[in-house]
Design a protein that fits this description.
The protein is α/β, with parallel strands linked by helices. The chain has helices spanning 4-7, 16-26, 50-59, 61-65, 74-79, 87-100, 117-129, 145-152, 173-185, 208-221, 244-250, 257-260, 287-296, 304-315, 317-343, 371-385, 412-432, 439-442, 445-467, and strands at residues 39-40, 67-68, 71-72, 112-115, 135-139, 157-161, 190-196, 224-228, 262-267, 280-284, 348-349, 357-361, 387-388, 390-391, 402-406. β11 and β12 form a beta hairpin. Bound molecules: pyridoxal-5'-phosphate. Pyridoxal-5'-phosphate is lined by residues 44, 117-119, 143, 145, 196, 200, 228, 230, 267, 269, 275, 280.
Length: 468
């Protein structure tokens, strides 16, 4: 019944990342109503500072009520559907982007394309830059949604750039070159390299020398650099955030082909904690790309009502500066809480300075150094500790035993419950020499099916990888 495009499963929606959400939905934790439920720690949502935005909305009824200086602007907003977006909104967005980047780069609103979230922005960019069957290189581990956003409808192939714990999962020239050679062996024309800075799932910002290596590599191969910077405003510790654009400017590359090959994706989903508003954008110095992407954006425009509300919010510079600072302070505190909680259970995290999650090392809890063992551990953590965290395999991590744990979508009290559960889990696990699955007690039959499908899938993917 469906087209082959719609029924193709290259979207990766059946990965453990999304399956964990489904298992959580069946039995969600609630401190009062369901204290034995599953705690959702697999969702990179920032709920820590919504209490600052809500009163602003209440105090500024004009922005929601579509009024300006006491006069209604309802008709103007209701009829507005220009895919270039409201000029006032775009001006505020470029100012905001510059502010997040320490006002080192001045952004031009004419180089900005609006889209319904970074999800849509990423898809549009890839659609504009690569043909079906061409390839984009992406350092691992990477956000599982990219399989859906970059591959599914565009028909573009993702070639992983394998990064390793021994390098702190940093991108190296060797790893980039290795991925490029693999793509060539597969007869894939490489159109670009796609980075996430700060990284999801690592929670780290890219270092200057990493960005310089990337620039050198992109220049040598004459390919695009796409930088997803949706977490740029979450940087809560040094070193500060350095965008690929800053790194290129530092090297005076504004008049080179590379400058035209750099494209930034940003959204208000993470920094402002507003994923439901669906505000994303592409920023590019390349006029041809901006023009094509603007046409594409008509498939996923941002509602003019949302644009109106948020241009009012962003115009209040005093409020946004205060918000950003306070939000970063809260994220840092929360991250420290998670790191010290896990430490008490003998679990270490990769050193991080950004994001809404930690990249957690549970290799010592694996029964063997395989992805099958990682899936088994994930499974046990869901059924025994009743925590949904996301296994590294769903981020295409090269080494088994790493998990992403989110800390900004739950309350402090819930995080404390989660830390107690993990401690108990680790104690029981070392006491019994490994926890046996107790599905019958804890997990419903749907969860059981979902989980066992996933175990089968990961095992066969591992086998394939070893055989090729
Ligand atoms: C790296 C990255 N890019 C894009 C997105 C999608 O963001 P949006 O809600 O703006 O579509 C996410 C969401 O988690 C993400 O982690």
């Amino acid at each position: 019944m469906l087209s082959s495009k719609a029924s193709s499963n290259s979207h990766g929606q059946d990965s453990a990342y999304f399956l964990g959400w489904q298992v959580y939905e069946e039995n969600p934790f609630d401190e009062v109503e369901n204290p034995r439920g599953i705690i959702q720690m697999g969702l990179a949502e920032n709920q820590l500072s919504l209490d600052l935005i809500e009163p602003w909305v209440r105090k500024n009824p004009d922005a929601m009520g579509l009024e300006k200086d006491g006069e209604s602007v309802f008709r103007e907003i209701a009829l507005f559907q220009d895919y270039h977006g409201l000029p006032a909104f775009k001006n505020e967005l470029v100012d905001h982007m510059a502010k997040v980047r320490g006002n080192k780069v001045k952004f031009d609103p004419n180089k900005l394309v609006l889209a319904a979230g970074a999800t849509s922005a990423n898809e549009i960019l890839i659609f504009c830059l690569a043909d079906p069957g061409e390839a984009i290189l992406i350092p691992t581990p990477y956000y599982p949604g990219f399989d859906r956003d970059l591959k599914w409808r565009s028909g573009v192939e993702i070639v992983p750039v394998h990064c390793w714990s021994s390098d702190g999962f940093r991108i190296t020239m060797l790893a980039l070159e290795d991925a490029y050679q693999r793509a060539q062996k597969l007869n894939l024309n490489v159109k670009g390299v796609f980075i996430t800075n700060p990284s999801n799932p690592l929670g780290t910002t890219m270092a200057k020398d990493e960005l310089n290596d990337l620039i050198a590599f992109a220049m040598a191969k004459n390919i695009h650099v796409i930088s997803d910077e949706v977490f740029s405003g979450t940087v809560f510790d040094s070193p500060g955030f350095l965008s690929i654009m800053d790194a290129a400017m530092d090297r005076n590359l504004e008049n080179t082909d590379l400058w035209n090959n750099i494209h930034i994706v940003y959204s208000l989903s993470k920094d402002l904690g507003l994923p439901g508003f669906r505000v994303g954008m592409i920023y590019s110095n390349n006029e041809t790309v901006v023009s094509a992407a603007t046409k594409m954006s008509s498939f996923g425009l941002v509602s003019s009502q949302t644009q109106y509300l948020l241009s009012n919010l962003l115009a209040n510079k005093k409020f946004t500066s205060k918000y950003m600072k306070e939000n970063q302070k809260r994220l840092k505190r929360r991250k420290e809480m998670l790191v010290s909680g896990l430490k008490k259970s003998g679990i270490e995290c990769l050193k991080s300075n950004a994001g809404l999650f930690c990249w957690v090392d549970m290799r010592h809890l694996l029964s063997s150094n395989t992805f099958e063992a990682e899936t088994k551990l994930w499974d046990e953590i869901i059924s025994e500790a009743r925590l949904n965290i996301s296994p590294g395999s769903s981020f295409h991590c090269t080494e088994p035993g790493w998990f992403r744990v989110c800390f900004a979508n739950v309350s402090q009290g819930t995080l404390q419950v989660a830390m107690r559960r993990i401690k108990h889990f680790v104690q029981r696990s070392s006491f019994s020499g490994g926890i046996e699955m107790s599905y019958q007690q804890n997990v419903s039959s749907l969860s059981r099916k979902l989980l066992s499908n996933w175990v089968r899938k990961v095992s066969s993917a591992n086998r394939d990888e070893h055989e090729h």
